[in-house]
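Notes from the pairing session

We agreed to fold both candidates in a single pass and log them together. This is the raw record for the first candidate, unedited. Please don't reformat it; downstream parsing expects exactly this layout.

Candidate A
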Amino acid sequence: MNLNTKDFLITVNLALFKVDEVKSASVKKLPQKELMVLLEKRKRAPYEDCWLFPYGFVHIDESLDQAVYRELKEKTSLENIYFEQLYTWGAVERDPTARVIATSYMAIAQKDYIKNQAIDERDDLKWFSVNKRLVAVNKPSDMQMVSRYIVSLYNREDDITISYQVIEDITADGFEKRSKYTYEPCSDSRELMAYDHIKILDYALDRIKNKVMYTNIAFGLIPEYFTLTELQQVYEIMLGKELTKPNFRRWISKKVEETQETKKAGAHRPPKLYRLKKSSIIEDQELF
């Protein structure tokens, strides 16, 4: 048995998300929102020129949380944003050069808060739009279901496309279900993700989708004051599906309150602005 801790390396990585707007070709349509994630381009082997989440090694005198906070500040100059631990990855083969155990974190922030020169001045840090969509479901038997997803990332500035096929194979095992995942780059993927970071991204997207159902995490991605249409768009991109306007507004009325403010909207009637009810922060309300 080898208990030499010098043979192990501990790292942290951070999936930082924001919501941004894409202007519509039609002036009559509102800008569409999309989920964005920050990736770093690796400059050395292994996986040279591949993309991964910003990461760093844990120092001997710091906790995991302290390490990820330090890396976030050093690489982006960001402070005081929401982040939470996702998962710890310890597969022996995840790094071909060393025994590396990595703990992943997820962070969210409003786009206006994230605007800073630290990110813009680094050519190895890029924002990518990201989405995960279900493309096929197959049930070979009553005891198995296989779902196929496509996870796509796109950077408009440099026209970079990263696309992976995700296969989720669920089987029944007694009273439980077992899930097995495989990841393969799509034929249209111009660049690749390093290590197991496509797996980490997939895990983070599922975490976001689940958390938006029972927490107020969506409000961390928008300004304090917002229209109900803007808020619905944020929920839709986090859930990966469209929501009916009446049902959404009926449910969200428990979480938000109308203000006296309105949003400038050109020649159109200015829509009312809302904000999160402080009382709803400590109340659990599942979506629909």
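Candidate B (folded immediately after A)
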Amino acid sequence: MAKKSTSKLARAKQALRSLFTPSSWLRYGKIANFFGYDGAGIQVAQLGRGVALSPTVSIRNGERVQIGDGCHLGQWTSIWAGDSHGRIVIGDHALLAPHVFITASDYDFDAGDGPVMDLPKREADIYIGANTWLGANVVVVAGVSIGDGAIVAAGSVVTRDVPPGAVVGGVPARVIRQRGAAEASGSGVSEKSANE
């Protein structure tokens, strides 16, 4: 069995080749152009200490985005503040899984029957508390507040305020229980299941 070359020099050559391959630049350029990404949103956003951003995070209107200390934003997370006034504030140590979408604006589809893209936008602030966890593919719409310590289950759409410490899930998201409820009522394992 032939052994693959794994020398540092071979890996460095391969990395350099990929940097100068026109197809690589074309592919990444198309992706960046498709999403309208130019990096400016991240550069002007107010980021706390120790924030970890995946390279694929998208921030729009970053001057209206504030991210607290120690937050982690997963791959393909989108943080889109409003064009004129809708702000997004994320508290310290929030964990956002991949593909979370947070938008502080929405089309006002009650304003007319024309093409949706031509309708005016509604904007409202979004507040996400400290020590929160938003699972993969969560959507948070304009005007929502998520309390400190809340957990939002994967795939949920948050259309209303979430109380502190609540575990919510669904479309639209509804309170499932409070954090610590299993510990308060016992071990969380029923006597019957423990004996099986």
